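Hi,

Apologies if this is the wrong queue. I'm a grad student, and the batch job for Energy-coupling factor transporter transmembrane protein EcfT from Pseudotabrizicola algicola produced an output file that my downstream script rejects. I'm not sure whether the problem is my script or the file. Here is the sequence I used:
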Amino acid sequence: MLTLTSPVDTPLHRLRAGHKLGALAVFTFGLFWVSAPLVLSVALLVVAGLYLAAGRRFSLHGLHMLRPLWPFVVVVALWHLWLKDPASGATIIMRMVTAVAAANLVTMTTRLSDMIGVLERLARPLAPVLPPRRLALAIALVIRFIPVLSERAAQLAQAWRARSGKAPRWRLFAPVALAALDDAETAAEALRARGGAG
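Support response: The file is valid. Your script probably expects a header line. Output copied below for reference.
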């Protein structure tokens, strides 16, 4: 699987995972209580500034990781233009881009093992129903599989265009779903070989 943690060392790498995840939760919650364009613009600039402070290589990698978000931005923009309500569309887009960029910043600067540790502690109250280790590992695997599936979908789309010259659209659904099941089975076998999730 691909790792989302950036090899470029930044001051954010040295902060505790729990503090970063807590700050992310508060920051995202606040975004959805704010509708003033000026405040949302400032929040977006703050997140962009954190990327830029880590250097050009880190910023470009972060921008690349946000690439799957752009189709949603286009859809929201076109929909609100059609509704003749561009102000609401701009607010939604700024919220969405800022929240996803902030979450991406946390995953780029936090090791998977640290995330699992935080999620385990948060899941302890559920121990009688669901083992915290398994829940934390499941959430971490979902986070790590997202870029893998995105990359796999891009490869399948490229292969389709090379053969037909047309966009695959809905035809990619079945092969991407099968690839996801195959990757899940491979990950499950690897976990079983290492003694399970604990």
